[in-house]
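Supplementary Methods S3. Input chains for the assembly prediction are listed below.
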Amino acid sequence: MRPQNSDMGLIVKTMARATIPLIGIFGAYVIVHGHITPGGGFQGGATIAGAGVLFLVAFGLSEAKEKINKNFYSVLEGIGGLVFLTAGMLGLGVVFFYNVLWHKGPVFNGEAGTLLSAGYLPIMNLAVGLKVYTGLVSALFAIALFRRWKK
Amino acid sequence: MRKALGLFAFLAFVLFLFAATISLRPFGEPPHAEMDSYFIEHAQEEASANNVVTSVVFDYRGFDTLGEATVLFTAVSGVLMALRHYGGKEK
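Predicted structure tokens for the full assembly:
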């Protein structure tokens, strides 16, 4: 009984409902504009993971268990790492981590400072952001699920 | 005796700190700035990113970032592995 109804009060829930989308949008902005403005994959992913942790804290474990599938998140983390590695191996004809998309690629070769520029940097930012977000959320979710000491 | 020894060690350490502080370079003049200047001047044309930190992290030092991602992956899988035995007893 105790661990199941571990959610917060009405004020915290309302504030979480209002702020979780804003935190998510800001984190997505930081990730997508990682090659133009300060920030990047790690910072934006950690920001969105903060939104996930706020959801877990405000709504309790039983509510979060229905919304968040930990195994799915863990799979997504592996996919993010693989996408990062693949983007690094795109220019393997020259050297590992050669920015081939920017030097002679079909996409992401715009002028510096625009959104569609910088070669594989946006792809890597997205991959690392996905990896950090899903990794942190699944780790924290595992820690929250583990809290099952004997009464 | 021990107090005197401790006092002596403390004074020696403070003297060492003062000597190190005096011999510091003035603020804003790092000793080796060639690499910083190279990154600041060439990052935009070589990696096409206005954010020089991102171009250093993902382009010039991409291999280091790969290791960092591996560390994060290992940490998360370690946490998931160590905290795994829920569900076995409750069901």
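Residues 30 and 44 of chain A are 5 Å apart (CA to CA). Chain A has five helices and no strands.
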